[in-house]
Amino acid sequence: IYILMDTTKSLCSPPPGLLKSLLEVDDNLMIKALHPGSRKSMSFLTDTFHCMAMSDVRHASTITSVMFFQLEGGEQDIQRLKEVIVERLLIFGRFRSIVVTEGGYNYWEEVDVDLHDHVHQHHLPEPAGEAELLAYVGNTFAHPLPPKKPLWSLTLIPHYTGPQGKSVCVSRISHEIGDGTTLIQVVFSLFDYTLSDSSRKGTGIVKKPLKRPSFFATLCQPLVFVDSMVLWIHGIFKAIFMSVLPGDTRTCLKLKSPQHMSDTRRVALSTHFPVSDVKKIAKMIPGGTFNDAIVAILSGAIRRYLEQQEDPALQDEKLLLRGLFPFNTRTHQTDIIKNPALFGNQFTLLPVELPIQAKNPYTLLRQSKLRCDELKQGTLPAALIAISKLGSLLLPTSLYMRLTQTIVGKATLLFTNVPGPRQQVMLAGRTIVDFYFFVPSLFGVIASVLSYNEQVSLGILSDPSILPDPKLLCTCFDEQLRSMRTAATAHSQMLTDPPIPTRYRPASQRTIAWLLILLVGVYGLLYWMGCLYGMVLFVAWVVLALFRNSPCEW
Question: Is the pTM of this model over 0.85?
Answer without folding.
Answer: no
